[in-house]
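Sequence and structure are kept together here, with a separate record for every protein. A complete record is shown below as an example:
=====
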Amino acid sequence: MLKNQTNRNFIQLTNHLRLLLAFSFFCLAVLSAARLSNLLFFGNLDELSPQQSDIAAMFVMGLRFDLKVLATLLFIIYCLPTIFAAWWIKPEKFHSYLHTVFSCSLLLLLMLAVIEFGYWIFFGGPLDVMVFGFFEDDTLAIMKTIIADW
């Protein structure tokens, strides 16, 4: 009986780690694709081609930053619930929670990358404090202008 429970726990842990690695891979892919799309869209390839080593260093630095942010995010949405609530939640529900949270986080990250790209096109710079004025100003007029300029 104990061996059967141990095998079941090991399989559940393996499934959680697979889900965690898939989420990490997709997050890093979205962030790298966003960085590459910004470089290709806004960069002048004729000026950038002689600086390939600098571009590679930029992508490595970006990947390091993305890993740091991802580690913090995973600590918040995986480690803390595991430490504080894992014994109260059934393993099936915890796996469902992870799947839901990872899916929502990935969707939010993808939306943020698209918003950043659109913001850069419209305002000519990265996201900043002006974003919060979006809700204070005439939101409908801003959305119409963004859609018309797109």
Q: What stands out?
A: The helical segments are 2-42, 45-48, 52-85, 91-123, 133-136, 139-149.
